[in-house]
Every structure is written in C-alpha cells, then in structure tokens.
Amino acid sequence: MAFAGFLATFGSVLFRRPLTGVAWNLLHGGTHAWREDRQVLRAHDIATLAAALVLGSRFVVKQWLYVHDATGWLAVAKIAMGTP
Fold first, then answer.
1. Which of 52, 58, 68, 70 has the fewest CB atoms inside 10 Å of its own CB, making it the most exposed?
2. How many domains is the chain partitioned into structurally?
3. Mean pLDDT per segment of 10 residues, for the chain of length 84 residues?
4. Three-state SS for 30?
5. Alpha-carbon distance 21 to 61, whole Å?
6. How many angstroms separate the CA atoms of 5 and 54, rounded?
7. What CA–CA distance (Å, rounded) separates 78 from 70?
8. Is the distance from CB of 19 to CB of 48 less than 8 angstroms?
C-alpha cells in the first residue's frame, strides 16, 4: 500500500496535477484556478512530494526489514510508521 501511495503521489506531480491541490480544490467547491498560479502550484508540488517522501520511506524501511526477516522490528516499524 505504501508503494502504491508513493506511485500515486509522485505520479500526480509528474503529470502536473498534485494530489494536495486536487483535494484542496475539491474541498473548496472546485472553483479556484489554483493551477494557473505558479506559487500555489509550487506549494502543492512541495506538499505532495513531502507525502510521497513519507510513503516512499515507509515502503523502503518495511521492505528492507521484511527481506532481512526482522519480524520483530517489522512490527515495531509498522506501528511507528502508521498512517499519518
């Protein structure tokens, strides 16, 4: 799930439709032209990339622990790196 979330968030930035901007616009009725404002678009790019970083790091840590058969630490990581 973390890898799928990483792909979705990172891909949305690549396609110039950052998910934080899409969600923000939906919450405000879809009436804002947020993509035309470069500063607002850059802010949503940064926020979405931060979410992608969290999801990507979650995947890397859990996958590394799984491959090294560290089930105790995997359980700790799953609890500590829960859904923000």
1. 68
2. 1
3. 94 95 90 88 96 95 95 92 71
4. coil
5. 28
6. 10
7. 12
8. yes
